[in-house]
Amino acid sequence: VNPDDSFTPEALRENIMKQSDLLVLTCEARTTKTNKPYLALRVRLPQDNTDTTDFRELDAKIWSNALGEPLEIGRIIAAAYEEEVYQDIQQLSIKKYTLRPLDFPQSRFLPATVVAQSVLYNKFFGYAWQNTDIRDFMKNVQALLEDDNGRLKRRFIEVPAGARNHHPRRAGLLQHINEIWDLTKCLFGGMAVCYNDGEWTCGLPHFPNLVNEEIVLVGAVLHDMGKIHDYNPFTLQHDDNRTGAYFGHSVWGAMIVQELWPPRGDLELRDRLTHCILAHHGSTTTGSPINAKTPEATLLHLIDAMSARLDVHRTAEEKGLRGERPEYSKMFGDAPITPTYPHPDR
Ligand SMILES: [Fe+2]
Ligand SMILES: [Fe+2]
Q1: Which of 82, 91, 192, 340 has its C-alpha lying 20 to 30 A from 124's C-alpha?
Q2: Residues flanking ion ligand 2, Cβ below 5 Å
Q3: How far is the CA of 176 from the centre of ligand 2 (A)?
Q4: How does pLDDT run across 214-273, given as a tens digit for each residue?
Q5: What is the pTM for the complete model shown?
């Protein structure tokens, strides 16, 4: 039933009742003190201009049909509601709603992305891997993401890489992976045309046969993939998610390699890749369960840090151009220095 054509009570005519599509940001089944069940939601209202990131977001309650399953985050509903004030805060009381289809356009609810999501997704999963085990493994990862109507894929292409730290924006995770990918490619391709021992060589020419490029590239795609469980792809903030809470993103990624590696594949290669993911924060003092102890793990860790830190500098400079002060960053224990901060005094 569509509320647009089925719901025309007196209230609607008197302008108390409003109708709009709403994006579900969070949803929990709760009960009142008197044991009355309801759904408690956080919803976002649509906006025609999505250049800004300031969307109107409100708490909402659904009293009818509240015994059903909570609504999935990211679902768009067509709702008829009243605005009310509860404990001094404006909220919506949803009187009636229907689910919009899963593929209903979300563009009026989301800020513009900084990267072309499908282009990057295809870049990572359409890559012509030389190693057949890696090729089979990446096919399995793709199948996992696209299973169940692409539920995990939608998270993967939407989540930020952090809530504050680095790449804290829509599709920030894809942007971060892409930077690591391209920086790796620079090392192995760009810089690599190098005259060495009377020969032009490629692939980290100063360290011949030391680093397996494909392990670094797969590591780039997998190292932070576990963040699909850590962040809400719509609020871009931390998500209360049991998988994320139990494992953390590094360990989740490592488990995926162990689980989805082709059973008859090279187990040494599997574990070398697993190590890169477990050790990508560098050492146990910086949050890795294990120190980076292979050339690929060292390289992935350093390029990962390069992408993360340069993003913090980039964000600070962009803020400076808008006349804003850069934010405190955990990475520097301070705000980064920009052309306008601290205020130039000479
Ligand atoms: Fe990480
Ligand atoms: Fe990372």
Answers
A1: 192
A2: 224, 304
A3: 7
A4: 999 999 999 999 999 999 988 899 987 899 999 999 999 999 999 999 999 999 999 999
A5: 0.86
